[in-house]
């Protein structure tokens, strides 16, 4: 039915969105649009319209990007349920926009207008991996962040780390030869790690049980 479509409505909504109003609606005739976004989470709503009305919306969540070439580094120092976040700005924008949370369904947003490069966040739960993003913006009106903010840095941290809840699963030994064997296992799921995983330790004993060997 595309020949009857007059155009498309697109909403690009930042997650989280602390604005009190809905995002700006973009109307266009083409079936593509180029938008410049920061590394924050975004929800894109697309609907078609004709003379009779508007179609249901298609919803797309912009996937998470890796920030390997970001200009700045963020440092986090845990203080119990609080954390002090510091960074060194490359320039002094009018404000910084900070996102933190455990994922796109649990993100919080804070606008920092001071140029000190540090602030305190609280209400962190132990054993959970948090993501913190700092974006710079020269326009600090809420509705303008989508067009003006640029991601300064991204980091992850635990307020309190614990021992992994579970061990490796599905351990198998393959390609056994006289002097070697391939050991494989399923890695521990992120929600069961309870801290930054540094590696795995493998212990094995020879058949006479006289030698106990190990490898990390």
UniProtKB/TrEMBL annotation:
Key word Signal present: yes
Taxonomic superkingdom: Eukaryota
PANTHER family the UniProt entry points to: CYTOKINE RECEPTOR, FIBRONECTIN TYPE-III DOMAIN-CONTAINING PROTEIN
Listed GO MF terms: cytokine binding; cytokine receptor activity
Keywords from the named record: Disulfide bond, Glycoprotein, Receptor, Repeat, Signal
Protein name as catalogued: OSMR protein
Organism: Gymnorhina tibicen
Keyword NAD: no
GO cellular component, one term: external side of plasma membrane
Record InterPro entries: FN3_dom, FN3_sf, Ig-like_fold, Type-I_Cytokine_Rcpt
């Amino acid at each position: 039915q595309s020949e009857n479509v007059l155009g498309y409505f697109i909403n690009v909504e930042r997650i989280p969105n602390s604005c009190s109003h809905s995002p700006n609606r973009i109307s266009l005739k083409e079936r593509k649009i180029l938008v410049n976004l920061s590394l924050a989470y975004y929800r894109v709503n697309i609907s078609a319209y004709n003379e009779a009305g508007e179609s249901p919306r298609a919803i797309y969540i912009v996937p998470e990007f890796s920030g390997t070439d970001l200009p700045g580094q963020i440092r986090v120092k845990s203080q119990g349920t609080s954390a002090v976040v510091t960074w060194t700005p490359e320039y002094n924008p009018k404000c910084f926009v900070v996102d933190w949370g455990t994922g796109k369904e649990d993100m919080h947003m804070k606008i920092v207008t001071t140029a000190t490069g540090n602030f305190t966040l609280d209400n962190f739960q132990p054993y959970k991996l948090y993501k913190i993003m700092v974006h710079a913006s020269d326009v600090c009106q809420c509705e303008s962040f989508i067009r003006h903010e640029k991601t300064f840095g991204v980091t992850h941290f635990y307020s309190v780390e614990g021992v992994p809840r579970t061990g490796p699963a599905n351990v198998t030994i393959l390609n056994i030869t006289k002097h070697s064997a391939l050991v494989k296992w399923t890695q521990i799921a992120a929600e069961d790690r309870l801290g930054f995983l540094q590696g795995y330790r493998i212990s094995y004993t020879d058949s006479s049980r006289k030698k106990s060997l190990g490898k990390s």
